[in-house]
Design brief:
Elements (H helix, E strand, L loop, with lengths): L27 H4 L40 H12 L2 E6 L2 E6 H15 L2 H12 L9 H12 L1
Antiparallel strand pairs: 1-2
Helix pairs in contact: 3-4
Length: 150
Amino acid sequence: MTKKAPLQRAVGKRLPDGACGRRSTDCSAASQPAASDAEYKVGPGRPPREYRFKPGKSGNPKGAKPKPPSIAPDLKLALERALNKPVKLKQGEKERIVTMAVAGIEQLGLQFAKGDRHPRRDLLAFADFGMDLLAGQHQATLRAARSVNR
């Protein structure tokens, strides 16, 4: 495989037919018709002179269409508000006030303890996200494991 040498332009020299170089900012010669239109070849990368972009004009003057606003922030805010609402829980004779999020997680734990498969799946998904399901219960778990082994 042979390598091609990079094209080098001497400073101050113009491209043939008044063509505009890629990094050149002076394209005034490109917008004016050349004296010899017969020499200019139209082809890939060389559009007819009348259809070239004019200097200082964008190829997309209207720009990209704006994207519709996302509803994700609104949904997140609505979920936060709903989960932070207080709710009264009765445990025997006692009544305590907790947020709906805490009540939901406690309910999930109760269903998991009963052996329901759906809460088990949800708790394992929480564990995959990095949530420590046994936070603060390591000592009790070790004691229970030791008592079973005796």
